[in-house]
Design brief:
Order of helices and strands: HEEEHEHEEEHEHHHEEEHEHEEEEHEE
Number of strands: 18
Strand content: 35-45%
Largest sheet: 11 strands, mixed
Shape: globular
Structural class: alpha+beta
Oligomer: single chain
Distance between the termini: 60 Å
Number of helices: 10
C-alpha cells in the first residue's frame, strides 16, 4: 500500500500531465502542488486541548494565453478521476479569466528549467508516542504549545517539460512555559526526533522560568550593551524579508538597504548573510520552477553582494535574475557564525541586557533601516557576567546600520535553526539559521 508521499507523487504526475495535455497550441501553463499530511496536537496546562489530523492538497495553475496571465488556486483530493475533472473545470475558468485580462507587459515565458527530485525521510514520533514524549519532560510546568509533524510536499510541472519534486518529513514543538503572567518561549524542531535533546530544551526553559520568578528590574530608556540570543536575532532577521533584500523594492525606492546598495552606508565586517538551500529547509526551485543557486551570497562582511531578483524584475529592469520568487525575499536565509563561544556570552556581555526574544517588529523609518519592536519572554538584566533579574518589557527603536554596523561587537560561533511554523491554510516550508549577537548601545525608547 502506498504511503501519503508515494500516492501524492503518483496522482500529481497523472493529473498534472492530464491538464497539460488539454492545452491548446497558443497556451502555456505552469502547475504547482502543495500537499501535507499533518498531526496537530495543542497543549494547555501540560494537557491535550486538541488532537487533529489534516490531509490536504492544493494546485496553483498559471495559464499564459495571448500575452495574458491568469493564476488560480484550488484544492484537489488525491483521487485521480475526481482530480482530472477538477483540473478540467479550473482550466476552463483560467481561459475565461485570460479573456478578460489586459496584456501582461512583464510576463515571464514558461520554459523548461530542468528537473529535480528530492525526498527527505525523517524519523518522527509515532502518533501514539507524542503525548507522553512531550508532557513527561514538562511535568510540573504550565506547558502550552503546538506539536505539528508529518510529510510536506511541493511539486511543479509545466507545458515545456519541466518537472520538480520535493518532499520532506519534519516536526516542530512551538511552546511556552508559564508562571502566571511570566513566560518563557522556545521551539524544538527538526527532521529526526531526539527525546534527550527535547528534554534538554525543556530543562533550559524551566531554568529560565525560575529566573523569571525574581522581582522585575525596571530600566530607563537609553542605550544598553545587549546580547541578542538566536531567537531574538531570528526576529530581527525576519525584517530582511519585508522588502529589504528585494531588487524590485530597491528600484521602486522602498528597500531598507538602499543606502547599503548605493555605498552610502555599510554594515559590520562581522555580518554576512546568504541563501543556503543545502540546509534542507525548503526546495531550491521557485514558483516558476527556476532553480536557485544552492548558495547565494547576499551580504558579505558588511557589503551587499546581491539582492534577491525574480525573473519578472529581471525583465522589467534589464538585469540578470537569480531565481528569486515573486516576493523577492530570502527563503533559506543563513546568517554566518562568528567566534563568540556560548560559555563566554555572559562574561563578554558584562553588564547589560540578555534578550531571548523580540516581537511586534516593524519599520519605523524604512529608508534608514530603522526598526521598532518589543522585548518579550525571557529577557534579563545582567551585572558583571551574572543574571540578576528579569526586566520589565522595553520598546526599542534601532537602525540596522548601527546595531549590525559599528555597534556589532561579536557573533556567536554557534547557530540555531528557526523554522517556519506558520500553519495558516497549510504548513509552511522554509526558515532561517542564525547565531547570537553582542551589540553595544542598543537603543530603547520606552
Amino acid at each position: 500500500m502506498l504511503n501519503f508521499t508515494e500516492k501524492t507523487k503518483q496522482s500529481f504526475n497523472i493529473v498534472a500531465d492530464h491538464l497539460l495535455a488539454l492545452l491548446k497550441k497558443d497556451e502555456a501553463a505552469n502547475v504547482n502542488l502543495h500537499a501535507e499530511e499533518s498531526l496537530f496536537v495543542r497543549f494547555n496546562a501540560n494537557k491535550v486541548r486538541q488532537n487533529t489530523h489534516v490531509e490536504q492538497r492544493s494546485l496553483t495553475l498559471t495559464l499564459q494565453k495571448d500575452g495574458k496571465t491568469a493564476n488560480i488556486n484550488f484544492s484537489i483530493t488525491g483521487e485521480i478521476d475526481e482530480d482530472k475533472q477538477r483540473v478540467e473545470f479550473w482550466l476552463d475558468q483560467a481561459r475565461q479569466e485570460c479573456a478578460l485580462l489586459p496584456a501582461d507587459p512583464y510576463q515571464v515565458a514558461i520554459v523548461n528549467n530542468g528537473t529535480s527530485d528530492s525526498t527527505f525521510k525523517g524519523s518522527l514520533l509515532k502518533d501514539e508516542e507524542v503525548i507522553k514524549a512531550i508532557t513527561t519532560p514538562a511535568t510540573g510546568a504550565d506547558f502550552a504549545g503546538l506539536y505539528c509533524a508529518g510529510p510536506i510536499i511541493s511539486a511543479n510541472k509545466n507545458s515545456a517539460g519541466q518537472s520538480h519534486w520535493f518532499a520532506t518529513e519534519n516536526f516542530f514543538v512551538d511552546y511556552s512555559l508559564y508562571m502566571g503572567e511570566k513566560a518563557v518561549k522556545s521551539i524544538y524542531a527538526g527532521t529526526h526526533w531526539d527525546q534527550k535533546q527535547f528534554e534538554a530544551n525543556i530543562a533550559q526553559s524551566k531554568n529560565q522560568l525560575s529566573l523569571m520568578d525574581r522581582p522585575k528590574k525596571v530600566l530607563q530608556p537609553g542605550a544598553y550593551r545587549t546580547y541578542l540570543a538566536p531567537g531574538a536575532v531570528a526576529e530581527l532577521a525576519s525584517m530582511f524579508s519585508w522588502g529589504a533584500l528585494s531588487f524590485n523594492a530597491y528600484k521602486q525606492g522602498g528597500s531598507a538597504l538602499m543606502k547599503l546598495a548605493d555605498k552610502e552606508k555599510s554594515l559590520s565586517p562581522l555580518f554576512s548573510v546568504r541563501e543556503n538551500y543545502a540546509m534542507g529547509l525548503t526546495h531550491r526551485y521557485n514558483s516558476l520552477g527556476e532553480l536557485a543557486p544552492e548558495t547565494l551570497k547576499l551580504i558579505s562582511n558588511g557589503q551587499l553582494d546581491s539582492y534577491v531578483i525574480s525573473s519578472r524584475s529581471a525583465k522589467e529592469y534589464g538585469v540578470e535574475g537569480n531565481a528569486g520568487d515573486s516576493h523577492e525575499g530570502p527563503r533559506a536565509m543563513e546568517i554566518l557564525p562568528g567566534s563568540l563561544k556560548k560559555d563566554d556570552i555572559l562574561k563578554e556581555l558584562g553588564t547589560g541586557l540578555y534578550l531571548s526574544n523580540l516581537h511586534y517588529l516593524n519599520w519605523s523609518d524604512r529608508l534608514n533601516a530603522r526598526i521598532t519592536g518589543m522585548t518579550r519572554y525571557a529577557c534579563f538584566w545582567v551585572e558583571n557576567g551574572e543574571i540578576v533579574a528579569p526586566i520589565a518589557d522595553l520598546r526599542f527603536d534601532e537602525s540596522l546600520f548601527d546595531c549590525l554596523g559599528e555597534n556589532l561587537l561579536a557573533v556567536t560561533d554557534f547557530q540555531e535553526v528557526d523554522p517556519m511554523v506558520s500553519t495558516y491554510e497549510s504548513r509552511a516550508l522554509g526558515g532561517k539559521k542564525v547565531p547570537g549577537m553582542l551589540i553595544k548601545d542598543f537603543k530603547f525608547t520606552l
